[in-house]
Recover the amino acids of this structure.
């Protein structure tokens, strides 16, 4: 329930339906996991609503596939975020993006659907257009680049968001997150 008061009349309230959100977390070797965790904590502390349907797709613990976890409350989110660890592997994001799209296409169409990709690097720069499958379905693919100093990654992650029809945020050195 997200109340918005319109104009000066407190009697008019608009609510938004629960959000169906897929969060892709790329923990490939070299990722700034502590900053990724801080970014996710900040998001969930500010925007998460208990009725939202959130599924994490974590590229990290399993070679060549995402660990998929649906979370049902703030405690589960916190536990998952605290468990994140950098992987010794490098991942292609394309298979996970296809999996996420299939899941979101099967989700309740009356609920807004979005993707939030969080990562420090894109292992294959040729994958910047892989997110275009979401734009074609009118599902925003938002990207949060979380990194200490990788200026070469900014353009790639902006393109990933643009091709996906979503927004881009560069959380360099954690400056976009306040404690």
């Amino acid at each position: 329930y997200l109340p918005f008061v319109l104009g000066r009349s407190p009697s008019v309230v608009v609510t938004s339906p629960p959000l169906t959100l897929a969060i892709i977390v790329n923990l490939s070797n070299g990722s700034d996991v502590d900053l990724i965790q801080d970014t996710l904590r900040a998001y969930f502390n500010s925007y998460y609503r208990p009725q939202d349907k959130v599924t994490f797709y974590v590229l990290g613990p399993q070679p060549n596939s995402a660990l998929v976890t649906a979370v049902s409350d703030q405690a589960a989110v916190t536990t998952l975020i605290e468990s994140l660890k950098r992987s010794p592997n490098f991942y292609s994001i394309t298979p996970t993006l296809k999996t996420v799209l299939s899941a979101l296409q099967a989700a309740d169409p009356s609920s807004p659907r979005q993707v939030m990709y969080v990562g420090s690097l894109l292992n294959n720069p040729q994958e910047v257009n892989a997110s275009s499958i979401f734009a074609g379905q009118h599902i925003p693919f938002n990207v949060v680049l979380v990194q200490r100093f990788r200026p070469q990654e900014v353009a790639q992650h902006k393109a990933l968001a643009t091709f996906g029809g979503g927004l881009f945020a560069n959380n360099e050195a954690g400056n976009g997150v306040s404690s």
The chain is about 30% helix and 25% strand. Residues 1-6 have pLDDT under 50 and may be disordered. Residues 101 and 134 are 7 Å apart (CA to CA).
